[in-house]
Amino acid sequence: MSISNNKLIKLSSPWYGQEEKDAVARVLDSQVTCMGIETKLFEEELKKFLGREDTNIICVNSCTAALQLSLQSIGIKPGDEVLVPTLTFISTFQAITANGAIPIPCDVNRNTGFIDINDLTNRITNKTKCILPVLYAGIDNNINEIYEIANDNNIKVIEDAAHSFGNKSIIKRSGILCFSFDPIKNLSCGDGGMIVCSNNNIAERLKDIRLLGVIGDTNNRYNNSRSWDFNVKEQGWRYHMNNICAAIGRAQLSKFNKIKALRCKYADLYLEELRNIDELQLLPIDTINGVPHIFPIIVKSQTVDNLKNFLLHNNIGCGTQYKPNHLLTYFNRGYHLPNAEWLYKHMLSIPLHPMLTEDDVYYVISKIKDFFKK
């Protein structure tokens, strides 16, 4: 398998085409680019697509906003503690501190990247008000245990499902789930996020605080209007999704089955071709119930630096997802989390996105095999 040396195989990429261009043009022609009818239609279409017309979909401008608003909506206050896996993008932690709360970093399972149940349990205190599990690479192993622990300790749960749009199992769960629609996620709005909330009272609060706390303004915005004589009872934020992003999302949703098929196909190729390399460990990526967002590989016998440099030299994009947050000065609480620290040195994400070709994937596979033959 050979590929032109001039072609960089990107680690991640959205799939934008004429559908998205037409969607943006439609909004620009309407002269209504703020939150409006496109946002409403996108939320309704998401309900139908997910098979959850009985729940609430609240679209916002990022998953970070979704997490921050969700924490506020359940009453998280300054000084409260939120248990969160250290292996996640920094936005998860920043959403907690934006509420004045304290993120308590927890270790992860070395085989899945999911929050470590024993470490989580040991860090519960009388200040713990919420558990925020991250579905790393879309993996939600042991999630039922999280809910059991939360129920036993009267703790709330909010799921960071940024990696998990399209997962069949998680969308059936009740509670609050936050998704990302940023440029490289499974479904992209250019930028954006979504909250799935089964509690109607919390959902109404979420709709208000995403619009600066203006009470009941959502329905006006859906009709391309807005409130002028209004009331505000709590801190709100300008976190709503606008018509442009919603229109892009609608276009993406119309071809999501194609996006899903490509992601699953390429992930299956990796799983099949790389599973017999003794030096590698693969995460339990689910291509039957889930839609893979990233494809991390674990180099057991050495750090990933040599492999990373080798792949980059061969025009293959790759990266570390993520640096554990407890290693960052702002979130360092003075303790070690050994599994996450080990994964940080041994785990590397390789290209997975719908703009790849099958030849691209086989090229990546061939170069990884070449590296371990040396």
What does this structure look like?
- By secondary structure, the protein is of the alpha/beta class.
- Helices cover 38% and strands 12% of the residues.
- It has 2 domains: 18-254, Aspartate Aminotransferase, domain 2 (3-Layer(aba) Sandwich), CATH 3.40.640.10; 256-373, Aspartate Aminotransferase, domain 1.
- Helix 6 links the parallel strand 4 and strand 5 (156-160).
- It is globular, with a radius of gyration of 21 Å.
Task: Describe the secondary structure blueprint for this structure.
Blueprint: H1 18-30, H2 37-50, E1 56-60, H3 63-73, E2 81-85, H4 90-97, E3 102-106, H5 117-122, E4 128-131, H6 143-152, E5 156-160, E6 176-180, E7 193-197, H7 200-209, H8 217-222, H9 243-254, H10 256-274, E8 280-282, E9 295-299, H11 305-313, H12 338-346, E10 347-350, H13 358-373
Parallel strand pairs: 2-3, 2-4, 4-5, 5-6
Antiparallel strand pairs: 1-7, 6-7, 8-9, 9-10
